[in-house]
Specification:
single chain, mainly beta, Immunoglobulin-like, Lipocalin, nine-stranded antiparallel beta sheet
């Protein structure tokens, strides 16, 4: 049969200086991801060499924003708050994720499961309008008419609004449209393919973790489901996570920053996304 399917996703990451403590992003194929926060030079916004830093491990999707954060080389005895900061300043309706006091070694541990909703919020200036799917994807298609062969593996390379794909005995070109968290792929098989002439349309959604899944139909009257097995979509935007002095942030009445002392904070070196049902 001629099952088709195209999905692409990239892990969004910002290149950090060599002093970065480790990579940001997803932990393999799991729902876990890592984010490093750093003290930064407020004149250049480069990571401050030898400065304070921290690591947050979090779930990329779920009913609550579930995370564990550990900070190091902070000011002993200072009270810190981990926040989601939405632009623009002063971050009105920011979300306070948790607070703790640094111990005598300058270490702080904060953890929790906070009902944040999806991040970034739609009012955030960094809210993503769509996703970047550029890259090589592995896609599996399940057929209704030819279920004995399920699943049918495809390799698809996406570049902007176009793509090329292949499966056993077939090659094709495709158009790719991304609107919000929705993706549509329309593939046309090339002359010489076993299934030529043939076309399929795949419609799907992009998860907070950057994976793809949905349904498809073709010109032969077949249809089914499809999902990505490799590749990750990169959001064009994301959420900022900061560690700030607790005295500098209002968490209750109208959440916002009330002071600005950036040399005392830790800043993200990568934007994140979180999806809540």
């Amino acid at each position: 049969m001629a099952v088709f399917g195209i999905f692409v996703s990239l892990s969004f990451s910002i290149v950090a200086p060599v002093i970065a403590k480790g990579p940001n992003g997803s932990a393999g194929e799991s729902n876990k991801a890592h984010l490093y926060l750093y003290e930064k030079d407020s004149s250049t916004w480069d990571i401050a060499e030898g400065g304070a830093w921290g690591k947050m491990t979090y779930n990329q999707s779920g009913p609550a924003f579930d995370y564990v954060f550990n900070g190091h080389s902070l000011v002993p005895g200072d009270d810190y708050t981990l926040i989601y900061y939405p632009d623009p300043w002063p971050g009105t309706n920011l979300q306070c994720l948790g607070s703790a006091i640094a111990n005598v070694e300058g270490d702080v541990h904060i953890s929790g499961a906070v009902d944040t909703g999806s991040l970034p919020t739609t009012s955030d200036a960094n809210y993503y309008q769509n996703w970047n799917l550029d890259g090589v994807w592995g896609l599996d298609f399940n057929s209704t008419l030819y279920s004995s062969g399920n699943s049918y593996a495809h390799s698809v390379t996406i570049s902007g609004s176009t793509a090329t794909g292949s499966s056993t005995g077939n090659t094709y070109t495709a158009t790719v449209s991304v609107i919000g968290n929705s993706v549509t792929i329309v593939a046309t098989y090339l002359v010489g393919s076993a299934a030529f002439p043939y076309s399929y349309t795949a419609i799907g959604t992009i998860s907070g973790a950057g994976t793809l899944s949905g349904t498809w139909s073709d010109t032969f009257g077949d249809s089914g489901t499809w999902s990505s097995t490799s590749g990750a979509a990169v959001p064009n935007g994301g959420a900022k996570i900061w560690l700030v002095e607790s005295d500098d942030v209002e968490c209750d009445v109208t959440p916002m920053m009330v002071a600005w002392n950036p040399t005392e904070y830790l800043f993200e070196n990568n934007l994140i996304s979180f999806t809540s049902p």
